[in-house]
Write a structure and sequence with these properties.
The protein is mainly alpha-helical. The chain has a domain of about 120 residues: P-loop containing nucleotide triphosphate hydrolases (Rossmann fold, 3-Layer(aba) Sandwich), CATH 3.40.50. The chain is about 45% helix and about 10% strand. Helix 8 runs antiparallel to helix 9. It is an enzyme of class 2 (transferase). Belongs to the sulfotransferase 1 family.
Length: about 220
């Protein structure tokens, strides 16, 4: 990590830390007072996004439906598949809570980050003890990618958007598989809500899937 002067904050981003078993202990040994920011989204959507990224690099891999089940007839989910295991947030958070109090963690809703980036960034700035400098005037929504882009309000430079690996169109997944995954994740989500004291409302998406499949 680079040296940090008084009045500065150094940030580093590595998504795999959250799901790596030895990461909490090693980070605690390095800086026990560190502040941790974790961005989470509906684990079903996250798994499909994960699969989409892998599919773009390895188009020969089996379908999502095949990889998601040990036995689809019996409805046995393959929780050992990394795309699904990562979304069991309560399991991973348990490891971090052995070393860090919740007061040093801030959870960002991936869904709200898209629809209200300024609102989520306001909470992040508060958590870090910063002035609310980043506001809604710093964001521009890119309809093509489906994500907000960052811009400098003081000039007319091109907004900075996520790279080519983001915003890919997800493959169409069997609605029955999505329903089964929502059911699989529900108890873990409830546990995660209880642990964090936040309701991310992912079950509302499950309800919309159920209604659309009945239309």
């Amino acid at each position: 990590m680079p040296s940090t002067l008084e009045g500065q904050i150094t940030m580093e981003k590595t998504p795999s830390y959250f799901v790596t078993n030895h990461a909490p202990k090693r980070i605690h040994s390095m800086a026990k007072d560190i502040k941790l920011i974790i961005v989470v989204r509906n684990p079903v959507t996250r798994a499909i996004s994960d699969y989409t990224q892998t599919l773009s690099k390895k188009p020969e891999i089996p379908t999502f439906e095949v990889l998601a089940f040990k036995n689809r007839t019996l409805g046995l989910i393959d929780a050992s598949w990394s795309a699904l295991r990562i979304g069991i947030y309560a399991l991973h958070l348990e490891s971090w809570m052995q070393y860090f109090p919740l007061s040093q963690m801030h959870f960002v809703s991936g869904e709200r980050l898209i629809v209200d980036p300024a609102g989520e960034m306001a909470k992040v700035q508060d958590f870090l003890g910063l002035k609310r400098i980043v506001t809604d005037k710093h964001f521009y929504f890119n309809k093509t990618k489906g994500f907000p882009c960052l811009k400098k309000p003081e000039d007319s430079s091109t907004p900075r958007c996520l790279g080519k690996s983001k915003g890919r169109t997800h493959p169409k997944i069997d609605p029955d598989v999505i329903r089964r995954l929502h059911k699989f994740y529900k108890p873990f989500n409830m546990m995660f809500y209880q642990m964090t004291g936040q309701n991310f409302e992912w079950e509302l998406e499950e309800d919309s899937v159920s209604r659309s499949s009945q239309d």
